[in-house]
Design a protein that fits this description.
The chain has about 210 residues and is of the alpha/beta class. Helices cover about 35% and strands about 15% of the residues. It has a single domain, classed as Uracil-DNA glycosylase-like domain (Uracil-DNA Glycosylase, subunit E, 3-Layer(aba) Sandwich). The strands form two sheets. Strands 4-1-5-7-6 form a five-stranded mixed β-sheet, with helices on both faces. The longest helix is centred in the middle third of the chain and has 19 residues.
């Protein structure tokens, strides 16, 4: 069985491995390891973020949990019925994903929340395996949060970047009946500057519901 997640002490990206080791010393009670996906593998809907946030998923061990971006994401997932329960910004809050799954293009927290190209390329093997596994089950729509995620998904599915320009709210046909929907990342910066508003975010989810 192929692995969908790097090992706890994955050595493939030396810079990221070093950063995790540093944070294990600083924050020994936190997760500090490659963050696994959250949600059922047979979900028809996959959300792909950039990478774990230092004090978010890297601390909690669950994507988008414990940082600002997760508030809007999980509240919207709950509103549209893709999840149930209550989001309380911690891994043991009982929140359950119903028909969606969340992952990241890069599984380990990067310094300054910015993975470099080599790290994105190296970690893409895990995203490729996950998408392939989900395609063999029930996957129909992928939502990319931001340009890095968009590019990773396009490359992972064997397409050329020049054929698919990142455009917020646009749905791309990327082959095999699979659709890629672009959305600005729900980061604190984007929401504070209103590059992405809750209404804009919900509009993307409405489109995804129609595609499903």
């Amino acid at each position: 069985m192929f692995e969908l997640l790097p090992s706890k002490d994955c050595p493939l990206c030396p810079r990221l491995k070093s950063f995790i080791d540093e944070n294990r010393e600083k924050f020994p009670d936190k997760y500090n390891a490659p963050v696994p996906s959250f949600g059922p593998a047979d979900a028809p809907f996959l959300i792909v973020g950039l990478a774990p946030g230092l004090r978010g998923a890297n601390f909690s061990g669950r994507p988008f949990t414990g940082d600002h971006a997760g508030v809007l994401l999980y509240e919207t997932l709950l509103k549209f019925g893709f999840a149930k329960g209550e989001y309380k910004e911690r891994k043991d809050d009982g929140l359950e994903m119903i028909s969606a799954r969340i992952t990241n293009a890069v599984k380990c927290v990067p310094p300054q929340n910015k993975p470099i190209g080599a790290e994105i390329n190296t970690c893409r093997q895990f995203l490729e395996r996950e998408i392939e596994d989900m395609r063999g089950r029930n996957l129909k729509v992928i939502m990319s949060l931001g340009l890095v995620s968009h590019n990773a998904v396009v490359k992972t599915t064997g397409n050329k970047l020049s054929s698919f320009k990142f455009t917020h709210g646009k749905a791309h046909e990327i082959g095999g009946g699979l659709k890629l929907v672009d959305c600005y990342h729900c980061s604190r910066y984007n929401t504070n500057t209103q590059r992405l508003t809750p209404e804009m975010f919900e509009d993307v989810f409405k489109k995804i519901q129609t595609l499903l």
